[in-house]
Structures are given as C-alpha cells and as structure tokens.
Design brief:
- The structure is a single chain.
- This protein is of the alpha/beta class.
- It contains eleven helices and twelve strands.
- Helices cover 34% and strands 22% of the residues.
- Helix 3 crosses helix 11 and helix 7 packs parallel to helix 8.
- The longest helix is centred in the C-terminal third of the chain and has 17 residues.
- It is elongated.
- Bound molecules: adenosine-5'-triphosphate (ATP) and magnesium ion.
- The site of magnesium ion (MG) has 5 residues, from helix 3.
Amino acid sequence: MSTATLNEQTVLDALRQVKYPGFSRDIVSFGFVKDLAIGGGNVSFRLALTSDAPAAAEAIKQQCDARLRGVPGVSSVTISVQAAPPQAPVMSGAVGRKDILKDTRFVVAVASGKGGVGKSTVSANLALALKKLGYEVGLMDSDIYGPSQQMMMGITTKPFVNEEEKILPIERFGVRVMSIGFLMDVDTPVIWRGPMIFKAVEQFLGDVAWGKQDFLLVDLPPGTGDAQLTLTQKVALSGAVIVTTPQDVALIDARKGLAMFLKVNVPVLGIIENMSYYECPKCGNRDEIFKHGGGKKTADLLGVPFLGEIPIDPRVAIQGDAGTPIMVSDPDSTVSKAFLRLAEQVAKAVGA
Ligand SMILES: Nc1ncnc2c1ncn2[C@@H]1O[C@H](COP(=O)(O)OP(=O)(O)OP(=O)(O)O)[C@@H](O)[C@H]1O
Ligand SMILES: [Mg+2]
C-alpha cells in the first residue's frame, strides 16, 4: 500500500478521535502523545499518561491501535505506555508559577474545608459583585467532582477554541466563565486519581485565554486534597477566602482549610460566614437560625480578617438553580448588598 498520504498530520488526526475516558477531550490535545515516529508503514509513539490506572491505559492503547490501523498506509503500530508519576509539585514561589495567568491582576481562591457551605454560590455572586464595582472578572470552576458554575451562571453552550488552541471563556452577565465541566462528559462518571487531577487542573489552567482581567475567582472543590493543592502550587494566588457556615462542624473544617493555605504560603484574605442569619423580607427582622457569629469568632481566634456575613435567603438557592444568581435577579436584596460589601472587602484585602 502506498505511504504517500501517511504523515504526522494524518496520524495525529486519527489519534484526535481517541478521547481520554471520562473526557470529551482527546489524547493529543491533552499532550499524552510523545515521540511520534513514522517509518515506512510503521507508526510508533509513547503514551505518556500521568495516571497509573492500567485499565484506562489499556483502553486508550486499544483505541489508538484501532484508529491507526484504519489510516491508509499504516501497516503496523507500536505503542509504549508510560504511566509516569506526576511532576513533583512546584512549591510556592517556584519559577514558572507566575507565567500562568500573567494578565490577571489578582487570583483569589474560594475554598472551604467542608462541602455544601456555599463556595460556588459565593464565587458566582462575588464575581458579579466585583464586576458591578467596575472590575473585569473571570470565574473559574475547578470543582472536578461536581462543577456547578455552568448551572449557576445559566450556561448551556460549550466554549470555543481560538487559533492558538486556547479555550475562550464564556462571557455571562459580564463575567468570563470557565468550568472544568466544559471538558467533561456529563454521562460518564469520572473516577479521579491524584495524578490525573494534577494533570487535568494544570492543563486546564494553562489552556484558557482569559485575557486581561482584574480578578479571577477560583471556585475550589471542597476539602483540602490534591486538586486544591495543585491549584495553590500552580498559580500565583493572591489569596484565598474561606467560606464557612455558623455551625461548629463547619468551623472546624474552615480551620483545616486555613491550615492548608498557610502551609503553602498562600495568604488567607479572610473568612466569610454564609447562611449566617435569616432576615424576614416583610418585617426585616433578623432570625439567627444557626448559632450566628462563629465565623467572626474563628477568624479572631486564628488571627485572620473576618470579611463579612451573607444571610440565608431561599431566593439564593432558587436563582442559583435557575442560572440567574441573586446579584442579577435581585440586585437590591439584602443578600446582594452583602455580596457587594464582601466584594469591597476582598478588593481592599488584595489592594485592588
Ligand atoms: N446564602 C444562602 N441562602 C440560601 N441558600 C444558599 C445560600 N448559599 C448557598 N445556598 C444553597 O446551598 C446549597 C449549597 O451551595 P453551593 O453549591 O454554593 O455550596 P458549595 O460549597 O459550592 O458546595 P460543594 O462543596 O458541593 O461544591 C445550594 O443549593 C445553594 O443554592
Ligand atoms: Mg461548589
């Protein structure tokens, strides 16, 4: 068979049909195809996976083999799989860390030790509040376990990729939004292993064309695991805000979050108490459903600023589910005003 049409391009085009399990993204754009060599009808390359999941590696290898055998001119395929350990973590202050997001003035992580305390709600509304104060703002959902910004910000489209192969964030309500959920298949459950998280988050960060902006808010997955650490190590974070709720158990976890950031030298800008109290929309009466004030107490105890409290309001949840955050749907509500005050505090804390 003629090998006239067999070249790197045709081979890479075939390999682009192979998706990484659980992703809508292909193995070439992930950078897993290395040392590609074409000699006669033989194609050989190395699959440089950062995961040590043998089942995924085998599945990818078989798919590559099948795809390549369908390419005219290919007579044999040699694939070596190298499940390399992830690159050693780059600790704070290391060289290279500042290259990512160099056009973003302040990168602020929104974190919590415990799930469900309102990180995503706070990230979305804080982003909108900063925008209202006149800043250019990006919002990045890095929660690989359950990305929620697509839903909260009402985004139903997928982002485009520009000529430089960078993903363009989707603009919504004046805020640039990027979610790791854009790259994931909704119906395929993903079982993440530490090294995969590391690679995905790293790649994701480097591949987005944010453009010039004042703030990038990063909605973190709950807890203090690999993804959080990767982020804190890969990006020059200006600081982190820790979201908590008034219950003691949430506060204990807030302390854990704080400890993580302190360990990697990321300044903690302060603590936010969410679902702090309920204000009756009719009479304006404040009802402290939970033991209110714990966030302030924890902040004082740990010697970090207290940035403010956000009341509980059913509209927050309803509007969040509907894709129009309360900052957009009810900009004059008590909650929205609280978010604006919070945005002022955050801007002040980073010196914007
Ligand atoms: N101030 C509030 N008033 C009323 N409901 C709220 C408030 N803040 C958050 N919620 C609701 O609480 C639920 C959890 O919020 P959210 O998803 O923002 O938390 P999270 O910390 O990001 O969760 P996860 O850890 O799963 O990522 C959502 O249904 C949200 O709408
Ligand atoms: Mg969330």
